């Protein structure tokens, strides 16, 4: 028999990721003294936080755009092309304007500027985003993979003192763990594209 299962679980996953990061960034900029008093260990990193805030906000903006795209697709069934174009645009924004790039060494090897690493980064982000989206066809699979892969990436980030990356992944992993409680078979809620696109993009 058919079951009516809501597919808006991605709202919780996106909210758990976006809202604490926005609140933390705002708090650091509005009341840095209070933050330093509450968490003294953060004081040496304040300058770094200020410098990377534009990149963090761009990431969060892209996540929100993809989340809204996913919610719309879950409701109206958008075609492949508009989803693909938005994903490429979000990835390109980070790679081109905020220098979020992988394998930058190939730019030096080829001697033609940042184009190769930009293209590879955009392709990689879009591929992983869609991979997580396509995996979302069985209860618990996408969130489970996100917990394992996100947890391992978080550990690597901690070992390399990449605190923002580690903190962001902790939020993603925590959100997915909370979602898994409701998504284990038989699922009482699905994440929909509003969740899977966010997970893939963040990873």
Q: What is the tally of helical segments?
A: 9
By DSSP, the count of extended strands is 0
Mean pLDDT value: 93
Indicate the overall shape. globular
The chain-level structural class is: mainly alpha
Alpha-carbon distance between the termini? 36 Å
Strand content: under 5%
Radius of gyration in whole Å, from Cα?
A: 18 Å
Contiguous low-pLDDT stretches (5 residues minimum) are: none
Order of helices and strands: HHHHHHHHH
The largest β sheet comes out as:
none
Helix content: over 70%
Your description of this structure?
With 203 residues, this protein is mostly helical. The chain is 76% helix and 0% strand. The protein is built from 9 helices and no strands. Helix 1 crosses helix 2. The longest helix is centred in the N-terminal third of the chain and has 31 residues. It is globular and about 55 Å long.
In short:
By secondary structure, the chain is an all-alpha fold. The chain has nine helices and no strands.
């Amino acid at each position: 028999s058919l079951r009516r299962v809501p597919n808006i679980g991605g709202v919780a996953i996106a909210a758990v990721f976006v809202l604490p990061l926005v609140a933390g960034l705002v708090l650091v900029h509005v009341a840095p003294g209070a933050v330093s008093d509450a968490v003294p260990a953060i004081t040496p990193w304040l300058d770094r936080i200020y410098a990377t805030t534009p990149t963090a906000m761009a990431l969060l903006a892209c996540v929100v755009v993809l989340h809204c795209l996913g919610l719309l697709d879950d409701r109206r069934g958008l075609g492949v092309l508009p989803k693909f174009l938005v994903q490429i645009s979000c990835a390109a924004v980070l790679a081109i304007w905020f220098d979020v790039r992988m394998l930058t060494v190939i730019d030096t090897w080829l001697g033609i500027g940042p184009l190769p690493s930009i293209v590879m980064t955009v392709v990689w982000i879009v591929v992983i985003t869609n991979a997580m989206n396509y995996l979302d066809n069985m209860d618990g699979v996408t969130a489970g993979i996100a917990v394992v892969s996100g947890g391992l990436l978080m550990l690597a980030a901690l070992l390399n003192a990449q605190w923002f990356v580690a903190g962001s992944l902790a939020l993603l992993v925590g959100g997915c763990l909370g979602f898994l409680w409701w998504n284990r078979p038989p699922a009482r809620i699905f994440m929909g594209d509003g969740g899977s696109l966010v997970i893939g993009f963040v990873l």
